[in-house]
Amino acid sequence: MLPSSSPTEDFFAGLEGTKRSTPAIEARREWDWLRSQEQLSGYKMQQDVILREQLRADEKRRKQEPARPVVFHGEQQSWTVNGCEDALYYLENTVMRLVSNRTPFQLGSLEYCRWQSAADISAKEEKHVRDDLKYMVICLVGYHDRIHRVQHALHQLVGDESDEWSQADRVGCLITKYVAIVKDLLNHLNGGVVEMYDCLLCEMFLYQSEPQ
Fold first, then answer.
1. pLDDT digits (tens, 9 = 90+) for 136-167
2. What contacts 29, CB < 8 A, 6 or more positions away?
3. Do the beta carbons of residue 164 and residue 105 sit within 8 Å?
4. If pLDDT is split at 50, 70 and 90, which confidence band does 8 have?
5. Integer Cα distance of 117 and 40 in angstroms
6. Are 95 and 174 in contact (CB under 8 A)?
7. Could you tell me which of 191, 189, 190, 183 has the C-alpha nearest to residue 207?
């Protein structure tokens, strides 16, 4: 029979095992860190695409003619400055009703919470939230097209230096910001539950950069 090892030998053998495992542990940590950085970089790239779309939409609204003539309530009109102001008032109120009078931060935050509650219930409930967000984007883009027509009419009537034109531009920029906030949420929703929680913890959602 071979003699059993002494407690001292066992102790030092354990230390050697610990030493051997340390490089592997450190390598794993390094790998996990690099992977997390790669994921965050991917989220940032998605975000940059959305922000570029937002900037292009704002620039197009300011510089290009709208695709169709100015239309309000589905009717062709001969526009006056007062008519443009009425249209602007109507569209801004319509947009704010759509987002329940929430600021961009509030919209993103509450829609995230709504998704989280739905995800805890069922995949069907989560899909309802996703579909609602898609519908919101469609509506907002449609309202932005109308603002484009109003802003272009004001450009022709009173010029780009007028208060009326600036007011139309403000509403247009608000709409494109809402579009960006919702599109960003949808992007991360498509990435799955882990991505949603990652973005929340790392403050990678666009709405988290907005004032509360």
1. 999 999 999 999 999 999 999 999 999 999 99
2. none
3. no
4. low
5. 25
6. yes
7. 183
Buried b (16+ CB within 10 A) or exposed e, 189-208: bebeeebbebbeeeebbbbb
List the Cα angle 180/45/135 in 5-degree steps. 30
Q: Dump pLDDT digits (tens) for 18-70.
A: 555 676 566 556 555 555 666 777 788 888 999 999 999 999 999 998 876 55
Domain boundaries, the chain: 7-209
Q: Answer yes or no: are the C-beta atoms of 170 and 121 closer than 8 Å.
A: no
CA distance linking residue 167 with residue 49, whole number of Å: 27
Q: Which of 131, 144, 178, 182 is nearest to 62 (CA)?
A: 144
What are the phi and psi torsion angles at 211 (to 5°)? -65, 140
The token duo for 51 is 């922000």
How many whole angstroms from its chain centre is CA 68? 28
Reduced to 3 states (helix: H, G, I; strand: E, B; else coil), residue 38 is helix
Task: State in Å, rounded, how far the first CA of the chain is from the last one.
Answer: 75
67-83: b (≥16 Cβ within 10 Å) or e: eeebebeeeeeebeeeb
Q: What is the pTM of this model?
A: 0.78
pLDDT tens per residue, range 179-208: 999 999 999 998 888 888 888 888 889 999
